[in-house]
Structure formats: C-alpha cells, structure tokens
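Two proteins, back to back. First:
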Amino acid sequence: MSIPFLTFKAQFSNAASYNKWSEKDQLAQLKACLTSTAANVIWDSDPSNVDDLSKLWQTLADRFGGNDLTEKYRTELRARVRKPNESLSSLYADVERLSALGCQAQPLQLKKQL
C-alpha cells in the first residue's frame, strides 16, 4: 500500500528534523527510502534534478503530488456517506483524508469549515 505524497514528505521532514540531517544527509536518505515507481525517478530523470534536494522534491511532487487528482478527491468527498456498520470515527477519518487531499491549496481554517 502506498501513502499519499504529502504524508510521505511530512514524515520524512519530521525524521530529518529530529535526526538533524544536513541537506546532503537528507538527499542520501531520501534516495535510499524511495521504492517501486518512486525509485525510478533516480534513474529516469535528469541527473541534475536528482542530485539536488529541492529539485528532487520538486520532481517527486510533479510526479506523485496528485495535484491533478484534486477534483477526484472533492467529488469523492461530496459523495461520501456512512457505509453500513461503519464507525463514526472511521467515517470521520476518511472525510478528513479526502478533505486534505481535495483542498490542498486551501487554508487550514477553510478545511476545518468543510
């Protein structure tokens, strides 16, 4: 199971901060933890885009950021109803997930109003 790009980036940034990784360390760690199709970015991209941390993040965001999926998540959110035998906490977690994915460019306060 893959995790959304923004979740991965947040977890990675948290680990980098906690471990006090330098930019060089972050680049090495990021390359090492990429798997599957994300790992392909290392060899199928311009080398100058994978040897610089900010450019590698941008390359990954362009490929996996899901900006083109925003409308899909908004549609799912509008159509989301509680399933039979689904707990309220499970429904809430899924609505929060869809809201975050469907409204990435929106301020946090607006997301909470949704």
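And the second protein:
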Amino acid sequence: MHEGLMKDFFSVLGEVPQPRDCLQAIQSVLRPGGLLSITEMQGDPDALGQVEVQRLAHQCGFSSRETVSRFKGFTLNFTKAPCSDKLTPEIG
C-alpha cells in the first residue's frame, strides 16, 4: 500500500476479522491529519465495544478526536498524527 493515499476513512470495525491488522493498514494509507471514523451499533453480534475500539485505535497510533453517542450505538472519530517519526527521514 502507498502512504498517504486516503484523506478520510469510515468503518464498522466489528465486521472485520482482524481489527488490529485492519487499523494498521488504514494507518499506512491514511494521510497525516486524516480522519478515521468508526461506528458500531448495539444489537450487532459482531459489534466491538467503545472501550475496545478506542484501545485498538490508540495502539495503532490514532488520536481521539470526537465521540458521538447515539441511542443504539456510537461513532468514534480519530485522526492520524500530522507527522510520524518512522516516516521522517534522518538527516545527516
């Protein structure tokens, strides 16, 4: 995958067999400062809980931006850091 191809990405993470791998792949193609928005709905047998989604996203390098709670679900918005240390070339 190519770094920085996508500006925004929206997902229902509970439907993905390997959520952490999915978030790492999104991290690799999302532009710095880009938005990741994850919605989960109550009653979906595959839904992940809000705390689990936040934990996975933070472990994959995303920063929390906004939480929207709804009657039967939630949406969590995250951003990719504007600059990643591992992408910054060394000078010298």
